[in-house]
Amino acid sequence: MWQRLTLTGLFAVALLAGACTVDPRPDNPGGDQQAEQQVEAGVPQEYRAKALAHARDRQIDACGLHDPAAAEKATGDKGDELVPGSGGLHECDLRLHKGEFNSTWRFNVEAGALFDASSRKSAAPENLGGLDIFVTEHDTSCEIAKPIDDDYAVVIVANAPSGKDKPAKAPCQVLREYVTALAPTWKELPKRGSGRTTPEFTLTRLDPCSAAATAMDMFAEPFLETSNPVTCTARSMKPAPPQQRPKGVGRDEVTVTWVMDDDPSKLVRAGDDSAREVTIDGRKAVLNKGSNGCTTYIVWDPDVSVVADNRNPEDETLTQQIRVTTATCDNAEQIAQKIVAKVAGK
Amino acid sequence: MSRRLTAVVLAATAATALISGCTSILPGTAKPESASSSPREPGTNCKRSANPEQCVEWVDTKPKQGQDLLAQSTQDELITAYMLCSAVPTEVWDELLGPGHYRFIGQGPTCTISSDDNRKTPDGKFAPVVEVEIAVWAKDPLATDLAILRGKKELAENVSEFTIAGKPVMRYGTPEDADGVGRDKEELSIAALGDVNAPGVLRVRQTLRAPRGTSYDAPIDRAPLTSMRDVVVTELLKVLFP
After folding, report:
1. Each residue of B72-84: b (16+ CB within 10 Å) or e?
2. What domain of life does the UniProt record list for this protein's source (chain B) (predicted)?
């Protein structure tokens, strides 16, 4: 059954009062330590610090970093929906609108974005609501980063409405107001499972590297590397010599990402053999040939889905999916089977 | 591409990238033993660098001159970088970059001197930032760089030659380096001893970047860069290669 992703209540009604209330239940004591200790053995020393940071940031409830009521106040528009990013479950979009066919502002949050000394050097330091942040202004968007440590941050980007209606406020003015309102919440970044948002996306309890590790035996001198809190890649220390790859063949590596996406069956079309549907351990999966390799979408939990468009709630729903990219589709199903078995704990 | 051409292109890359501090293509030891007592941990200035983990704090060191400095650079790159950073006195940098400038040894044996990136304009906005990077290369003459870069049409069109303080200078710059958008550069290689065929090149890259918090494609006024370019090189030559 689909549902709206909410902050402690119905999005359109109760979130105004409830959004800023963090569930008073204490976080799992020692939970962070546990996460820190669970770096996959295949992650080499040089990437372990990054993997630790990503494991920590995977615990942040990206959608819980939003407050739709505050966004409505800052923009003057109406809240539309919270949508976990299809780029990965460490991202979450909040969309707003003025009317039925008039989408306006979009706020994208990324938890655990790379934000190192070089980024800090070029962004402008400010304090909003007691929060030390960095601002970068663009023509039609604005970016604010709240560092988590020396190298990573929560980054929020406000994208102004496109089209002929110029918004009354500049993107950075809107975002400053929004982040000022978010400051009390961002001082203690909300954790997944704290109840701040429902439903909980249980895939994020797992380390994508433990899934990617199942593909290590494909490579000579294999290793694992995370690229964000929900993505891990298995590849070889001994890359093949540079050569022109045939069209449709991707890099010789296996990448696993936890995402929210719509029904992958939509990729399967009559008369087009680029996508095919299979069942893996009772779960729907679609293998899709692309110009840069093969992407397999495995629906992890069809019973938990969220609305991607409140104005079209039955057609646009998203589910938690395991996205696996491989060089070709030739062995993608076998790789997906191993990954699902691992993630399912079999 | 033939093997020979590959080697030449790599050499050109090394030549032009030397100033950027790409240690992976530099010969020699980046952090020699003789500098072991120098501060390695990021300190006040390194914390403000783009890469604190690779950065070494500057130590004020009386510079050697001419051939002695070139010889020094083949023996001890870090000490040489200290010397390059120490060549021009604070008062001169104050005039060129404004008060609050700071120096550090960035990635590789390159001295970096930056204007205060927290400096604000009278209207309370962050000011543009100017960075000067300085390095010396003792092993080849400027003629080698010129031959490599002039030898390829797409590189040659970015090369110009002139003199500063009587010494031959090669400027390498793409149109984007001088378009007044986001980040502009003046990248100069100077025949340190005055002869393009004599080994010894002083490299000075001056970068102007948009104020903190502004977009990479924000318009910038490159006038400060244009006006200070020759002055910086003249000041450095005065001390290092009189």
Report:
1. bbeebbbbbbbbb
2. Bacteria
Determine the angle formed by the axes of helices B77-86 and B66-75, rounding to 10 degrees. Answer: 140
Which chain B residue is nearest to residue A123, measuring alpha carbons? B213
Residue-wise pLDDT for A159-214, tens only, equals: 998 877 778 899 999 999 999 999 999 999 999 988 899 888 999 999 999 999 99
Q: Which of the four pLDDT bands, split at 50, 70 and 90, describes residue B132?
A: very high
Q: CA angle, A262 as apex, A256 and A266 as ends, to 5°?
A: 105
SS3 call for B124: coil
Count how many residues are written for chain A: 346
A-chain CB neighbours of B48 within 8 Å are: 121
Q: Which of B51, B112, B212, B220 is the mutation pick for testing A, counting most A CBs within 10 A?
A: B212
Work out how many domains chain A is built from and give that number: 2
CA nearest neighbour of B108 among B203, B229, B185, B37: B203
Residues on chain A touching B213 (C-beta within 8 angstroms): 122-124, 134-137
Domain of A223?
Answer: 202-343
* Model confidence at B197: pLDDT above 90: yes
Tens of pLDDT, residues B144-164 = 999 999 999 999 999 999 999
A123 contacts chain B (CB < 8 A): yes
Q: Are the beta carbons of A123 and B47 separated by less than 8 Å?
A: no
Domain co-membership, A210 together with A186: no
B214/chain A closest Cα distance in angstroms: 5
State the distance between the two ends of chain B, measured CA to CA, in whole angstroms: 42
CB nearest B213 (choices: A118, A137, A139): A137
Q: How far apart are CA B185 and CA B212, in angstroms?
A: 17
Q: Name the residue facing A117 among B49, B118, B215 (closest C-beta).
A: B49
Looking at residue B169, its amino acid is: V
How far A202 CA lies from chain B's nearest CA (Å)? 36
Statement to judge: residues A151 and A220 lie in one domain: no
Last residue of a domain, one of A135, A157, A190: A190
Interface test with B, best of A114, A118, A120, A122 (most B CBs within 10 A): A122
Task: Tell me: ipTM over 0.85.
Answer: no
Beta carbons of A234 and A213 less than 8 angstroms apart: yes
3-state secondary structure of B42: coil
Task: Please check whether residue A242 touches B, CB under 8 A.
Answer: no
A124 and A243 share one domain: no
Choose the final residue of a domain: A190, A223, A257. A190
Report residue B10's pLDDT band, with 50, 70 and 90 as the boundaries. Answer: very low
Is the CB of B213 less than 8 angstroms away from the CB of A123? Answer: yes
Å from B213 to nearest chain A CA?
4
Return d(Cα B199, Cα B74) in angstroms, integer: 12
CB contact under 8 A, B50 and A118: yes
Residue B214 near chain A (CB below 8 Å) = yes
